[in-house]
Design brief:
The chain is mainly α.
Length: about 70
């Protein structure tokens, strides 16, 4: 599954890089909730990812993709 493109530039899923994710979700907890529970076309990853893995995804999209 590669909804956000390899570089986070978007595609089927929303753009994640260049500050887009921080702009949409200023509070990292809100971003984690969407990953955990899903929203719209974004599937839930609850039970597929641990809380630590979800936190790692949030950190990666904020710190690495920027």
């Amino acid at each position: 599954m590669n909804c956000h493109a390899n570089d986070g530039g978007g595609g089927k899923g929303a753009k994640l890089k260049d500050g887009a994710v921080v702009e949409k979700y200023p509070d990292a907890a809100d971003q984690a909730a969407v990953i955990r529970n899903g929203r719209g076309q974004m599937p839930s990853f609850d039970g597929r990812l641990t809380d630590a893995e979800i936190d790692a995804v949030v950190r990666f999209t904020r710190e690495v993709l920027g």
